Amino acid sequence: MAPETIKPNRKFLALATQLSCCVGVSVAGTTQARAVKLGLTAAGALFLLSSGSGALAQGMTGESHSLTIMGFNIWNNGANSKMWDADEKAKGNLVYNQKMQDLLRGVAPDVLIMPELYNNSGKVFNGQSVVGAHVQNTLDLLNSNPGKLGIYQKNKDYDAREGSGMVFASGNVQSLGNNTIRVNPGNGFSDVIIEGRHLNYYDEPTNRIVEAKQLAQAAQTRTLPTIVAGDFNAGDVSERGLLSIDAQIRLMKKASGQNFYARLAYEYMAAGDEAISHKIIQDAHPSSNINNLTWRQWADALDAAYRQGADTGLKDETYPVTNNEPVTLNILKQQYQLMQLERNRELFKPSEMGDGRATWTSDGEDATNIWESWDRVNIDHIMVSRPFAKWVEIVDNGKWSGTLSEAARLPNGNSLSDHEPIAQELRWTGPQIQTYKEGETEKSRLVWGAGAYGFETRNNELVLTRNNHRADVYLGQISDADGKSTLNDLTLEEKKTLLDCESGDARFQQAIKDYCIDDHSFIGETAVTDGGTILVSEDAALGNADARLRLIDGGLRITGSDMKTLDRTVSLEGLGWIDIADANNRVTLLQQATGEGALLKRGAGTLVLGQANSYTGGTSVEGGVLQAGVDGAFVDNTAFSVNGGKLDLNDFNVTMSSLMGEGGTLSLGSAALAVDQSANTRFDGNIDGTGSLTKSGTGVLVLNGANTYTGGTTVKEGGLVIGDASHSGAFLGGTASVENGAYLAGAGSVGGLYAGAGSIIAPGNSIGTLKVNGNLAFDAGATYVAEIDASGKSDRIDVNGTATLGGAKVYIEKAAGTYMPGKRYTILSAGAGITGTFGDLSQNMPFVDLGLTHDPNAVYLDIARNDVDFIATAKTGNQKSVAVAVEALGAGNAVYDTVVMQDNEDNARRAFNALSGEVHASMRTAIINDSSVVRNAVLDRLGAAFGGEVPDTPLSTVATDAGSAPLSAPRASIWG
User: Fold this and answer.
1) Torsion-angle region of residue 137: left (phi > 0), alpha (psi -120 to 50) or beta?
2) Are 469 and 484 in contact (CB under 8 A)?
3) 3-class DSSP assignment, residue 746
4) At 432, which helix (H) or strand (E)?
5) 845 Cβ neighbours under 8 A, 6+ residues apart
6) Alpha-helical runs (H) found in 245-371
7) CB within 8 A of 145, min separation 6: which ones?
8) What pLDDT does residue 963 have?
9) 416 band by pLDDT with thresholds 50, 70 and 90
10) Largest interatomic CA distance in the chain
């Protein structure tokens, strides 16, 4: 075939520009003044940064969590650009027209990328630099936008001719070189790295492939999200646009001598009906072998038939041919997700003017396309790197979002540039990302708390998953490292189908792993706070095993049943909960739980603590099972609470500083449980197993559940109550031994009971019955404390077996009321008989004797009037007179009965005084005696003048002038 002219360059390759400025740089929330070196690479992006330390303006009002990115390739038409106002231009000024002004004000971008700006370098109008005019107009508009309070500032430009584009940005910005900036929006949106890009424009994608790989590799090494925006010179569903029949013929006309065009032409012929195409060409050249004709001759024949409406055999490209596969974006999509609105998504058919699905050529500018392998295509993009893209959503602002064809269209139907502008307001919906230093390494911290977007509306919950559930990858775009599709056995319709990240189809599992399952190794640590909860279904969602989990009044919920291990350090700072949601799931924490906070187990599943831990804030269970997997898993000398579910010691001993809770089970296995507490607590749950319980410490432990453990109970110190007043069904299995200085009480039951020397047994809570299902034995040094009331009720111990009394003491506590002699109380019964008797009975009523009566199966307390006369306790004459009078009243009289039941002699004397009326007779004497206070006050005041000495002469003085003297004598100011 005859050679043809190779197409001219349509874009200018950028060179490097170096700038420097001083900006406020904010990293991980700390702002500092820093000299920053800024630079551009061949792609060309000059950074215009804001001054000061303010965040990205108020345009992102308060905590908007959003960042507006705009890209606009403004072309290189110099003073002939359609952006200039005609009237101002006639006056010799380059001023943006109203359409351009409305565009920038309407979008109000936080970051504006203008590829090809510096391709206008060297162009001058009326002595004014075209580049300078663009920059100044842009800055003036951005700075005057009422929706933003941030300041866009142009920094010193050393050589405006170098580079092809510019990045304008507000907020705290730091240059990272190579057209890359780091922005701290300060409004809830994550710190972000932004790359302004203008990729290679050649027909063949070789250079773009290299650039795409570099972008992908850079994102993989970063611990912060990366946004790449600008002119990619590559489409989404095809590399250069899906060609219509007309465009294919136009390509063929230039294919001779152009190998790449020729390959494309062959592919387009093969995609159609070649027999029809060959016949048309043969008919146009009846005497020639069509294989000896040039591509131009083929194209002319097909073009003539096409213009006449004939079927040329060619078909509109509805799926890219091999050499039009979107290899550039295929590579980028391996590491980035495409941010686009559904209305701007490219379709599997050639784009038409006005469809909003192409950015080049812009509406009304089709005539500017002189590059034969290209057709209308969306080549201007905004992409966000994985794994962060799943936490970014587009806020659809209507006219000012997506492909802005209408906003850039001029009244005459043309557009401001040959590219359509694009813009997306991106909202950060994931956890906050903070950076911190560990040694010399910068790491990222995920923070889920009140500062995150939608925290309260999402019930304080975040589903943290590696599955990005993306919807921007077609099955035909699943590709190798060079962007070539790999799923070649699919039907055409399958290739046009979006990858379903939840698909169970075996053919797509590797693709799902490669494209949908993000790498979370960037996570240095995850912090959950403010009552938030993070939900995970796999451990890898939290990062590698060295990424710790910090629970700062927050928690982790493990969903499903696939996750079996939590392999990371858990730092408890405040209350931290771990919720195993699935009742059938058993998760083992493989690393330590540390910190000063408390661990709370929630959910129906099982959490096993697989390491000896050091957290000191205590342990609580609300649901499911919390189990010790090793010795030391439960931290000694810390508080424990069970309000549901099970706390399983799993045969490992533990010492608790307190035990409490509203229900659930404490399972000992064969463990020895020690409760050494100074506080008074209550546990309403059950204790089971073959292990033992030892109670020490000065506090009281109340057990209100069915405690079936069989290893025995020892009360060394303080008190153990088996069943409070509302839990008479409480049960303590095995034998309880109470040692010197300790006591056992309650209204429940115990398997067996031994009261050692110095111990106290006190049935009931107030008045109640303690049941002993086995045998009861008292040491001689023990004390049985029983309470009685005037109605005839009393504490008692009911023993199913034998009761050995051993001469123990009995102490009776009496509730308020009148105790009449002759009453009998049963304080102990024993079904299998009583051995021995109680010894000393401590009683403290002066007129009533409390006596014990023993029979073979019971012990009784009897009340009898003794032979002590009332007068024996009286001291004063009045008391004695009253005592004689009251005693004469006899039993049954209310006054007599009240006096006889006084519990000590002092109270008896007080009763006599109250009855004597002597206070009335003494009142006058008391008043006269108190009058001395007034007399003494006057005399003391006079005596003070002589310093307390007696004068030699009668008192008299003449006051000749005013004077003062210290007053040292007492004063009775109340009395006057």
Assistant:
1) alpha
2) no
3) strand
4) strand 432-438
5) 814, 819, 901, 902, 903, 904
6) 245-252, 259-271, 274-284, 295-307, 327-332
7) 59, 104, 105, 108
8) 56
9) very high
10) 167
The predicted pLDDT at position 966 comes to: 55
Q: Model confidence at 923, in pLDDT bands (50, 70, 90)?
A: low
Write the burial class of residue 939 (CB in 10 Å: 0-12 exposed, 13-18 middle, 19+ buried).
exposed
User: Each residue of 452-489: pLDDT tens digit?
Assistant: 999 999 999 999 999 999 999 999 999 999 999 999 99
Determine the Cα–Cα distance for residues 255 and 3; give it in Å rounded to an integer: 8
Name the band, by pLDDT with cuts 50, 70 and 90, for residue 902: confident
| Contact in structure between 682 and 663 (CB atoms under 8 Å) | no
3-state DSSP assignment of residue 393: strand
| CB contact set of 529 (below 8 Å; sequence gap of 6+) | 447, 448, 449, 450, 552, 553, 554, 574
DSSP string for 705-739: SEE---S-EEE-SSEEEES-TT-TT-EEEEEEEE-
Q: Are 339 and 392 in contact (CB under 8 A)?
A: yes
Residue 336 to residues 49, 244, 333, 468, 880: CA-CA distances in angstroms? 26, 29, 5, 11, 104
242 vs 250: CA distance, rounded Å = 13
Rounded to the nearest 10 degrees, what angle do helices 295-307 and 259-271 cross at?
Answer: 40
CA 354/CA 361 separation, integer angstroms: 11
C-alpha to C-alpha distance for 900 and 822, rounded to whole angstroms:
13
- Amino acid identity at 492: L
Stated length of the chain:
976
pTM: 0.82
Give dist(CA 228, CA 368) in Å, integer: 27
588 forms bridges with which residues in the sheet?
A: 565, 608
CA distances from 771 to 240, 738, 752 (A): 90, 16, 9
How far apart CA 771 and CA 791 sit, in angstroms, is: 22
pLDDT, position 4: 33
- Positive or negative torsion for Cα 539, 542, 543, 547: negative
649: number of Cβ within 10 Å: 22
Q: Cα torsion at 336, 340, 344, 347 (round to 10°)? A: 30
pLDDT tier, 150 (very low <50, low <70, confident <90, very high otherwise): low
CB 790 within 8 A of CB 798: no
Burial of 917 (0-12, 13-18, 19+ CB in 10 A): exposed
Cα separation, 329 vs 125, whole angstroms: 38
CA 62 to CA 241: how far, in whole Å? 41
3-state secondary structure 674-704: EEECCCCEEECCEEECCCEEEEECCCEEEEC
Each residue's pLDDT tens digit, 633-657: 999 999 999 999 999 999 999 999 9
Helices (H), 840-876: none
Query: Contact at 8 Å (CB) between 625 and 603?
Result: no
